[in-house]
Amino acid sequence: MDKIACSVNSLYEKYPYPSLPIRNENDLVKKLHANVMSKILSSAGLDPASLSGKEILDAGCGTGEKSCYFAYRGAKVTSIDLSCSSLAKGKKLAQDFNLEVDFNRCDIMDFKTRNRFDHIFCMGVLHHTNDPYGRFRVLSDMCKPGGTITIGLYNRYGRFLHRAKRMWIKLNAGEDIDRRMSFVERSIYGRKFKNIHEQAYAADKYANPYESYHSVIEVIRWFDKNNISYIGSYPHTDIGYFGSFLTQLKWFRSKNGFFIISGRKN
């Protein structure tokens, strides 16, 4: 594990993410779809029914909510993550709903399989690594021809104001995760965190030791290098250089620092 992976993993071992409050079937299926999965699936031109029988890789699965959603929809799911704490929560969630998910602890770079996947999802992961494109290339090699790959990344423009806030936190609390979390409680929330999910959200957003920032055109170039055709994105954007730049400037105004983008392997 490289230095960046070690530091990032130390955060997720302490604060498994996202630790969503999944208490019942409605939370797993309807609420998760409405709040998260509809955006992810729509960017790839998919719907819940289309997942049945498909081979899916959830790369950087965290606490396993998406993996369990895919399994509930009838997919054969393989999930990988570095955090033991996150994987333990994912396995418990799968057990609670009697779902079959193949959880694995490893880095994307080190994942070995003969399988090729119909759909690959890597949400909010690559920007916490030392080589986002290198890991994307590994994932693209595991995608079947005709299959889809969907990634979620921090946007270079939309994340700008938040980057300034992270610098302010670092100046006041340094690199230590616990000091940062205490500072965030006092100075941003003005109170103690309400629950595990809120704590995990704050840790990921404000205390993460490393993140990088990316543009739509950059990812389109990744697609082109790996024989992948653009399908869609969330929020929607024009993929032309000028059009995507103007769209991302709007993301700056709306503080939309995260975007989802999907492509199909040719």
From TrEMBL:
<dbReference type="InterPro" id="IPR029063">
    <property type="entry name" value="SAM-dependent_MTases_sf"/>
</dbReference>
<keyword id="KW-0489">Methyltransferase</keyword>
<protein>
    <submittedName>
        <fullName>Methyltransferase</fullName>
    </submittedName>
</protein>
<dbReference type="InterPro" id="IPR025714">
    <property type="entry name" value="Methyltranfer_dom"/>
</dbReference>
<feature type="domain" description="Methyltransferase">
    <location>
        <begin position="52"/>
        <end position="161"/>
    </location>
</feature>
<keyword id="KW-0808">Transferase</keyword>
<dbReference type="GO" id="GO:0032259">
    <property type="term" value="P:methylation"/>
</dbReference>
<dbReference type="Pfam" id="PF13847">
    <property type="entry name" value="Methyltransf_31"/>
</dbReference>
<dbReference type="GO" id="GO:0008168">
    <property type="term" value="F:methyltransferase activity"/>
</dbReference>
